[in-house]
Amino acid sequence: MDECTGVLVPLVCTPKLICFVVSGWQLSDLEDYVMSDSGLIRRYPDFFVSEIHQEVLWLRFSGNFFHNITSFDKRDFLGDYFQRVKKNEALKTVVFETNYRESGVDEYVDFFLSHTDEASLFGGTRLLEINKLSNIINQTIISMIELNKFTIQICQGATLSIFMNIGFACDYRIISDNTVFYNAFKKIGGLPLGGGSFFLTKLLGRSRANQLLLLEDEIPASHALQLGIVDKVVPQAALESTALQATQKISKVQPRTLSGIKRLTNFSLQELKVYLARETEELQRVCVQMGQQKVYV
Questions:
Q1: What is the rounded distance in angstroms from the CA atom of residue 290 to the CA atom of residue 61?
Q2: Tens of pLDDT, residues 181-199
Q3: Nearest to 169, CA basis, from 74, 85, 256, 265
Q4: DSSP structural state of residue 24
């Protein structure tokens, strides 16, 4: 968007790829930009960029995850966006690229410790930010799973286990060979967010899930592949091309088959919804205990 005229300026405009820049936006300013493709083409600097390539919607997430998510006044923004995606019959695949270089272990620790102080205990207002974060993550995971599209996650480098857990909401997970997932919640005596315990128990069984969550501080790419946490490990330079190869295969699947399979595999989604509500309750309890320890110990 030109800062003087307020006109949307296309970065690229070809039959295959459309991408717009919106300049001077603020997290609290969430007016829907009616651009094209039912409002699916968006660019919010240091939060997320969307591109459409034929039948593929590519979402690139970056910036400070904790600041971005908790700064939104409109909590269901991503949910509304995913509803638009769901209604777009021309799309078959959604690629979620999570590249949170500014959201590492230190940022995770700072966010939680700064929200579990004495003011949180006795005033309760700052503790609500953690509850808000948990609810938005949970709603996003459910919305991703409910999409009637094939979903792919790609990520690289040092990555919080939160984003590994969000990846479980996708149908196919590709990571670079330099990826390491970090169980940062252990550093503060907290709990994993985003359904990690649920997904890992389903995938590995209760005992192995407990071992991974309680004994492992880091999960390198090779180990994640061995456990089935991810589906493919490739060199960093091959991430996008590998994802595109998968989208080409999905392009050959009939839309009715794709949406039908997704409905069937999502049949037990209610179990996850119940779990996520319980996870938020447990998180609140643990955060209060963290605050009490900081105040009284």
A1: 30
A2: 999 999 989 999 999 999 9
A3: 265
A4: S
> pLDDT tens for residues 19-45?
333 333 333 333 333 334 568 988 887
Furthest-apart CA atoms within the chain: distance in Å:
63
Which two structure tokens, joined as six digits, stand for 41? 């083409």
Residue 53 contacts by C-beta under 8 Å, 6 or more apart in sequence?
16, 17
Give long-range contacts, CB 8 A cutoff, 24+ apart: 242-246: 242/154, 242/174, 243/95, 243/152, 243/154, 243/174, 244/56, 246/93, 246/150, 246/152, 246/172, 246/174
pLDDT of residue 168: 97
Q: What is the pLDDT, as a whole number, of residue 143? A: 94
Q: For residue 233, which phi and psi values (nearest 5 degrees)?
A: -120, 125
Global pTM reads 0.82
Domain spans of the chain, in order of start = 9-296
**Would you put residue 179 in left (φ > 0), alpha (ψ -120 to 50) or beta?**
beta
Q: Give residue-wise pLDDT tens across range 96-116.
A: 998 887 788 888 888 887 766
Element (H, E) at 93: strand 93-98
Distance CA 231, CA 151 (A): 13
Token code pair at residue 132: 């808000």
Q: How far is CA 54 from CA 93, 94, 145, 258, in A?
A: 10, 11, 22, 17
Q: Which two tokens stand for residue 264?
A: 């069937």
Please work out, in degrees rounded to the nearest 5, the angle formed at the alpha carbon of residue 264 by the alpha carbons of 261 and 268: 145
Superfamily of domain 9-296: 2-enoyl-CoA Hydratase; Chain A, domain 1 (3.90.226.10)
